[in-house]
Amino acid sequence: MSSSAVAVYCGSSMGKHTAFTAAAVSLGLTLAAANRPLVYGGGSKGIMGIISGAVLQGGGEVVGVVPRAMVAAGGEDEKVRNPTKVYLNEAGRDKVETIVVESMHERKVEMARRVDGFIGLPGGFGTFEEVLEVTTWTQIGIHDKPVVLLNVLRFWEPLRGLIQNSLDAGFIRDSSKRLVIFVDGPVALEEHESFDWGRAALDALDHWERGQVEPLFDWSTAASSGKEDNLAAT
After folding, report:
1. How many CA atoms lie within 13 A of 212 on its CB side?
2. Pairing state of beta strands 117-120 and 6-9?
3. Strand pairing partners for 7?
4. Is 36 exposed, middle or buried (CB count within 10 Å of its CB: 0-12, 13-18, 19+)?
5. pLDDT tens-digit readout, 174-212
6. Burial class of residue 168 (count of CB atoms within 10 Å of its CB; 0-12, 13-18, 19+)
7. Nearest to 118 by CA among 188, 180, 48
8. Which of 82-96, 136-150, 182-196, 213-227 shows the lowest per-residue confidence on average (mean pLDDT)?
9. HEC letters along the chain
10. How confident is the model at residue 224 (pLDDT cuts 50, 70, 90)?
């Protein structure tokens, strides 16, 4: 997998606003045009399906990482009983490389190991948890990779406020504020649906400087070899 690959965290639902899906399309097409492989959670529903479909449409590379428990057995009856499960070799998605792992944690580690940075689109609890975990991994020295949040319709504004509140209260160091990059888009929210979120996201990733935050811990004694092996300590 190319070191220029990008992990994208997002919802398995569409959300209530078309600006969310438009941002996913913009990001997917931009990743494909820039020859930046997409690594994501493997689903074809919701925003996950939109961005992976856009990358495929643009001729890009897509890798889905799926826990075994989320993989459906197959067949039409299975689709009725388990509409949220992931179907391998789904029609029109045969170019997706799917990696099946044994747990949710293995999924996150495998995704992080394969990419150079992370982008968060709107989503739910799973998206929140994934974004914050990879941010924490940079803070404590597991890796040194940027996290970019696309603040479509100000979706991530409450998290920005929470981070600032924790900074003010003394629980996050001032130097760690830069670990999460918010891409806000136009001031006028009505312009968010047509904004080039993809270009803005890659610009933010590419301008992030490594080594600017001193990690809280040294994981070299826990890893057998190489920086990426630090993920084995998670």
Report:
1. 13
2. parallel
3. 39, 118
4. buried
5. 988 889 999 999 999 999 999 999 999 999 999 998 877
6. exposed
7. 180
8. 82-96
9. CCCCCEEEECCCCCCCCHHHHHHHHHHHHHHHHCCCCEEECCCCCHHHHHHHHHHHHCCCCEEEEEEHHHECCCCHHHHHHCCCCECCCCCCCCCCEEEEECCHHHHHHHHHHCCCEEEECCCCHHHHHHHHHHHHHHHCCCCCCCEEEECHHHCCHHHHHHHHHHHHHCCCCHHHHHHEEEECCCCCHHHCCCCCHHHHHHHHHHCCCCCCCCCCCCCCCCCCCCHHHHHHHC
10. low
Closest CA relative to residue 4, chosen from 206, 191, 209, 210: 206
* Pairwise CA distance, residues 47 & 15, whole Å: 8
How far is Cα 37 from Cα 60, in angstroms, rounded to an integer?
6
In sequence order, what are the beta bridge partners of 100? Answer: 66
Question: How high is the mean pLDDT of the chain?
Answer: 86
Taking CA atoms, 41 is separated from 109, 188, 203, 224, in Å, by 12, 31, 23, 28
Length of the chain: 234
Dist CA 220 CA 142 (whole Å) = 9
Measured between alpha carbons, how far is 14 from 132 in angstroms, rounded to an integer?
A: 22
CB atoms within 10 A of CB 22: 17
